[in-house]
# Entry
Amino acid sequence: HEPSSEWRVAIMRMTRSVLRAANRVLSSSLVSRNLLRRSVVVFLYHEVSDQPSRFNEMFDLNITPSVFARQLDLIQGYFHMVTPRQLIDGDAQTPAALMTFDDGNASYFREALPILRAKGIPSVGFLNFGPIHGDVCWSALTTYLHHCEPAFSASRRRPLIGNDYCRITEQEVWRYLDTVNADNLLARVRAFRGAVARQEDLDAVAEDPLVSLGNHLHNHYNATLLAKRLPAEFRKNQAFLDRHPRGRRVFSYPYSGRNDETDRMLRDEGVEAIFAGGQVPNWRHAPAVYSRVQLGADVVTEQRLMEAILTTCLTTACRRMVQRW
# Structure
């Protein structure tokens, strides 16, 4: 017999309790080192600042420089810090860790990089050149419309639910902007978004061997909505990267939205490594897409670091098991 929805919920709760207890054991120093000895863990950051923007604060995308420095010390205690080139070439000694930063925040260049340099740690900054060159950031615009502009939601045929703002179309946005003072609204969005990198930030890292710069699309569009436009948006952004000494053909999915078709398009464009969400370690040197682990501000001990890396693996296994039932 198919289990009832109540039984599924009860099983999930019971399994989660067991997994929490198991995770406390698995995250102990000896066990976690053994579990992760062949892994490649790609860490994902966004903003590193004592004064987070409203946008990054809303989604817990900011950590302070002091916490960031502490997390780097913990990561270095377990992993060999590697470059994207080492991953691509299969030359990464495991357990390996790669530090990545999405969205082209100014704080990556002005706050995070000085700390990374002092510790000799390489990193990848994934950039959207649209906002760098003055365009309003698409992810900030759609987030602002959803969370801070009630009239936009009211103008839609159906209400936005959950993270549906990731799927807001350009047509919807331009149609709404025609009905309001667009200049005033976009100024509010820029303040909401916070500081993005500028050309002087890019110039400052031109000769830095610890820095690689990757492609995050020209303006943080959802790749799965672009369809046949994806290669053009990729090329538009990559053109600036190809002219920069630290530019690389590595790609990070905005919103982590991906599928097999978008992966294929990117490979056809010569992308050497693709990064998305997933929140799990990689146990192969060169997977089709590297999953990444995002650390919260509460990760300041070895135990919490291991729990942050391993918890999602266990939760994912639990979910798949219940789905099979």
